[in-house]
Specification:
The complex is a heterodimer of chains A (about 110) and B (about 120). By secondary structure, chain A is an all-beta fold. Chain A is about 0% helix and about 50% strand. Chain A is globular and about 40 Å long. Helix content of chain B is about 0%, strand content about 50%. The chains are: A mainly beta (about 110), B mainly beta (about 120). The interface between A and B is medium-sized, with 25 and 24 residues.
Chain lengths: ~110, ~120
């Protein structure tokens, strides 16, 4: 069955370190998204991509970057981790207009 | 920007009673609306969507939602709640400002079903 997987599931890192969270989907979806989930804020969009070599900033993109070199993967990089980036991160993908999104299990990131 | 609002932080309901989770939307153009559920330590799971057609949409796990254009609402409902329905529920809308394939989510509603 097609799926979307995130790794790692849990990560503890130190302030200032570069961290990369992986997202891999086998749905062959063009559209991929990264969200962060925080209490009181719900889900906020960090970055998204509509296809290979396409990346776009979401509403909370500062301090994050993504790259899309193939259809299956959209890694999220924290350039210099900050305590404010402690959160649960979700990757999602969808096929297109009007379709539902499929979500990964999430990565719980703690920056100490 | 397109947006949804979920006015209640938490909804408590007794098992067997009807469950309603409220969502109102603000869009330009036709709304594409979605409901998702999140169980503890899991990702979001799709429940149902409204694109066009009948105002009453049926989805997974016995849930349904009613699209009301005049009230700009898309409330999620279940006739008889189960303890296993205790979870976090998110309403979402297609965000055309960022291209047609973005979804904007509400803040979520925690549903607690009391045995």
């Amino acid at each position: 069955d097609a799926e979307i997987t995130q790794s790692p599931r849990h990560k503890i890192t130190e302030t200032g370190r570069q961290v990369t969270l992986a997202c891999h989907q086998t749905w062959n979806h063009n559209n991929m998204f990264w969200y962060r989930q925080d209490l009181g804020h719900g889900l906020r969009l960090i970055h998204y991509s509509y296809g290979v070599q396409d990346t776009n900033k979401g509403e909370v993109s500062d301090g994050y970057s993504v790259s899309r070199s193939n259809t299956e993967d959209l890694p999220l990089t924290l350039e210099s981790a900050a305590s404010s980036q402690t959160s649960v991160y979700f990757c999602a993908s969808r096929s297109g207009f009007g379709t539902e999104a499929f979500f990964g299990q999430g990565t719980r990131l703690t920056v100490v | 920007a397109q947006s949804v609002a979920q006015p209640e932080d938490q909804v408590n309901v007794a098992e067997g009673n009807p469950l309603t989770v409220k969502c109102t939307y603000s869009v330009s153009g036709n709304p594409y609306l979605f409901w998702y559920v999140q169980y503890p330590n899991r990702g979001l799971q799709f429940l149902l969507k409204y694109i066009t057609g009948d105002n009453l949409v049926k989805g997974s796990y016995g849930f349904e939602a009613e699209f009301n254009k005049s009230q700009t609402s898309f409330h999620l409902k279940k006739p008889s709640a189960l303890v296993s329905d205790s979870a976090l529920y998110f309403c979402a809308v297609r965000d055309i400002d960022g291209g047609n394939n973005r979804l904007a989510f509400g803040k979520g509603n925690q549903v607690v079903v009391i045995p």
